[in-house]
Design a protein that fits this description.
The chain contains 11 helices and 11 strands. The chain is α+β, with helices and mostly antiparallel strands. It has one domain. The chain is globular.
Length: 325
């Protein structure tokens, strides 16, 4: 049950430029989906972004969310905190509270989701059809939106966190900014020279737990970009085969709202890991290196990995990888 007191755009599917995306208050102000300092620093504001609607081109800087002055100020303050941490590289980012990273990442993922909702609504409208979302998606996106309101509302997370966020050192050529998102599945990855992070924003931490073994082995190493791509592919495919619906106990208390993760039962959380499907996904991420699916899956050989030696399961040292950054 989502709290009735706070705005939930997924209840009545309200995505309107006159209403703040986070509070539902009337507003004429906007905020960019991607933080302005990030677009300025990596000079990608004027670059094109591919949305679900291939017919309508957007530049990153054109993607904007309606927001109240209060929300705009809160995000500006959050941006200053993240920017200050960013300047300190991996150590700075790793020292940030995960809730701040959730809010900071959540703004971008929600912004992209908002545009996908508007596109789908307008497409159906042109066909004379009503815009509907399945109850499952309404609930999941509604929970995500409620958690994002922790930026401005007294919302606390009790016990286990509703997300998996991994921050790690990463080596890239200077001035490269790499990011991937899957707004519908509420996933995001971000990599620059110095650090990378991967976020599953609504998995209740189970994907992070599934990948715990490799995350532990990586500790203390500066990842090569090809390892970063493989790591995100593992998170992404784990999300694809996840068979567990995150549930929450949401209580309105005198001093705010408490969100508690309801732990899963004994059933297996993940479906069968199909190496063939995973290799196809991984080849999409590795195509910049010219690595194709047939290179990943070879007859009578274990699947190709740049994270683990397939025979010993030892972590592959990044400096031993002879590929460009």
């Amino acid at each position: 049950m989502i709290s009735q007191t706070l705005f939930n755009p997924f209840k009545d599917l309200i995505f309107d430029e006159h209403f703040c995306f986070l509070t539902g208050n009337l507003t004429t102000e906007t905020i960019t989906v991607f933080p302005q300092w990030l677009m300025d620093h990596f000079k990608f504001g004027a670059e094109r972004i591919e949305m679900m609607d291939k017919a309508k081109p957007y530049n990153y800087e054109d993607l904007k969310l309606p927001c109240s002055p209060e929300v705009k100020k809160a995000f500006q303050e959050l941006d200053l905190q993240v920017q200050a941490a960013y300047k300190k590289g991996f150590k700075g980012m790793a020292s940030l509270d995960q809730e701040l990273l959730f809010q900071w990442t959540g703004r971008m993922v929600y912004g992209l989701l908002y545009y996908e909702m508007i596109y789908e609504r307008d497409r159906l409208l042109r066909q004379g059809e009503d815009f509907e979302l399945s109850p499952t998606l309404r609930e999941r996106f509604g929970h995500f939106h409620l958690m994002l309101q922790s930026l401005i509302e007294p919302i606390s997370f009790v016990g286990k966190k509703p997300w998996s966020i991994a921050v790690f050192p990463l080596k890239y050529s200077a001035d490269i900014f790499s990011y991937r998102d899957d707004a519908i599945n509420l996933m995001f990855s971000f990599g620059v020279n110095g650090f990378g992070f991967i976020a599953c924003l609504q998995d209740n931490g189970v994907i992070g737990e599934k990948q715990r073994d490799i995350l532990d082995k990586m500790e203390g190493h500066v990842l090569h970009p090809i390892q970063f791509e493989e790591l995100f592919a593992r998170f992404h495919y784990s999300d694809y085969i996840l068979q567990y619906k995150p549930k929450y106990k949401i209580e309105t208390q005198d001093n705010g709202i408490a969100i508690e993760v309801e732990t899963a039962g004994k059933q297996p959380l993940f479906g069968f890991w199909d190496e063939d499907i995973f290799a196809q996904l991984l080849s999409n991420y590795w195509q910049v290196y010219g690595i194709e699916k047939k290179d990943i899956l070879q007859f009578q050989k274990p699947p190709l990995s740049f994270l683990e030696n397939p025979y010993t399961k030892d972590f592959i040292k990044p400096e031993s990888i002879d590929l460009p950054f």
